[in-house]
Amino acid sequence: MHNFNQELNHQIAKLAISVDKLIDVTKEVGHDKLEITLAELRNQLEAPFTFVIVGEVKAGKSSFINALLDTDKEICKVAPMPMTDTIQQIIYGEEEHIEIINPYLKKIYQPVDILKEIAIVDTPGTNTIVAHHQEITEKFIPYSDLIVFVFEAKNPYRQSSWDFFNYINAEWHRKIIFVLQQKDLLPEADLKINIDGVLKHAHEKGISDPKVFAVSAKLEIENYHDISGFKEIKAYIQNNIMEGKAPMLKFQNNVNTLLTISEKLDESMSTRIRQYEVDVKFRTEIRELIDTQHKKTEKQIQFLTESLLDSYDNITRQKLIDLEAGLSFISVVKRSFSSIFGKESSLKEWLTSQANDFELKLNTSLRDKLQNGIIDVAENIQIMGKLVDNKLRYSETILKNNDEIYADIAERRINVLKDLQQSFNQFMNTAANFYDESMVSESSKMTPNLAAGGGMAIVGVILAAVAQGAVFDITGGVLTAVGVLFAGVTLGLNRNKVIKKFEEEIIIGRSKMQEEVSDKLSDYTQRIKQKIESNFFQFDQLLETEGLTLTRLQKVQKEVRTELIQMKD
After folding, report:
1. What are the residues facing 52 on neighbouring strands?
2. Mean pLDDT in residue range 30-57
3. Domain spanning 47-244: CATH 3.40.50.300
4. Which of 63, 70, 134, 257 could make a disulfide contact with 217, Cβ separation 3.0–4.6 Å?
5. Where are the domains of the chain?
């Protein structure tokens, strides 16, 4: 027996650790009710095996307890009007005394032998109208080891009693026995009908082997022990609970209670997990949306660049042919003689006209393509912003800020989303967010006709200014060096040098245009993408914290369940 008690104490100590872990989980998720339940259970781990007596007012609960304890004293007061307006814990004590715990609970100490192994809790009626009594009674159910449901034998079908039974059975799966009290008040045939009725009700509600006892406290107290019905219920208690069985039964009941609480925590966390999963999906969709639109923009920039370069190559190729022909030895000599007589322009004038023609063709060909291409790119950036803004307006909310358990996390999430929506809307309409001084020179000269307002309108201005600068740099500068060379040309002797220099300048101009239109526009749109993403910093932090919290809580829950299942086995 000593070894048994030692092992049981060791198991109870392990159970206490599991309780503490679950208390931490309830604090983390904000489940105040379960936290209180667990804290009380922690205090009750080494308490005696506890009977909780429940039933309607005037069902005879107090008389039943007095008869069960088999003393000459009226431990629980019996009166014509309801007397039990508090929870009464009846426990063993060497001397009789009463301890008032709070307005709703008192402990009655009695030197009764049966109380060395069990404790009895007398509760207010399930149909009481006294404030808080139903709530207080329900708080005692999780620590109970046996629920004794007391009915009036003449009417065991009252709805309030069976509603309370449903709560006990569904919420906590407590061990329950049924007592039909005051059997002396009705004939045997009627009593048999009511016993069968309770058995039928219990079977229908999922009790596979219901125990129903018909008793008369009045007959028992008057020493009619053979017909009072108390022999049967005392034998049941003796055979199933007493004789050293109570401590282990109590331990197993506590294990089962903790498993039930762990399941309840899983149920309560499931909503929070669903919200987290929805938010992660929502955030992933926004990232994918931004990435998709950015890739479309990149393709537009690539297409625009390739189209501009094709036009540039065609114009420069034709101009190179014109220069090679115009600078041939025969053409130069012919032009020199003709210019003397005023029949043709001089070589210098011809070269100037070639430079002007080159600039005109480049500007004419490239400007329209730039204008249309820039509008497409700017509008695509605008669409990116609008799609994100629209997505924010329709984020799915599962947690409600009036939720009993998750009001705090729900409100925090709602506030973060609200701030995100407001800040993003402000971001979209603030030009400074899209302004990049390093890219803008003479931006006022060219503004695309964008169907956009606020901050997005300036996107087109910036992009256009960048591309415009590229065109002017190319058209205004490609032939400059060639013109300098021609200042000293005589009879085309430097033709090859001039053509070579023109080809070099074409390559430089091409590279510069590609850099200005492709690299800088891509870099700019990438920075816009990053700025849009930066609006989600606070929301991303919330998701990261929530993910870590849920992972940790689920890990603790899994550990506790493993420990409890091992103890149960």
Report:
1. 121, 147
2. 86
3. yes
4. 63
5. 47-244, 269-565
